[in-house]
């Protein structure tokens, strides 16, 4: 077996120094330091502006949920037979064919 020995040791040059901040950037930063409370106040207020009267209610005739284990509203029962108790009786007050005992994420989305 051959062993390879590398003896070429090269040292890279030191990195170039960073240029100083430009005058316009340093002026901008100094102005922001003085006025950051005002800028923060304006940003928060502009972000939280609620356009009252412009919101329109959306009504959809149906929601198609290509379910997973967190939102299965009965497909599992259809495939593998009726779920055992409590199968949704706590919220719906009747058997709902679910393996959970209440509402799922998709129910809350549909209600909203």
UniProtKB/TrEMBL annotation:
State the superkingdom: Eukaryota
Name the Gene Ontology molecular function terms of this record.
alpha-L-fucosidase activity
Going by the UniProt record, its keywords in alphabetical order are: Glycosidase, Hydrolase
Q: Does the UniProt entry include the keyword Repressor? A: no
Does the keyword Hydrolase belong to this entry? yes
Give the EC number(s) listed in the UniProt record. 3.2.1.51
- Signal peptide positions (record): none
PANTHER family xref list: ALPHA-L-FUCOSIDASE 3, ZINC FINGER FYVE DOMAIN CONTAINING PROTEIN
Family classification: Belongs to the 'GDSL' lipolytic enzyme family.
What name appears for this protein in its UniProt entry? Answer: Alpha-L-fucosidase
* Species of provenance: Opuntia streptacantha
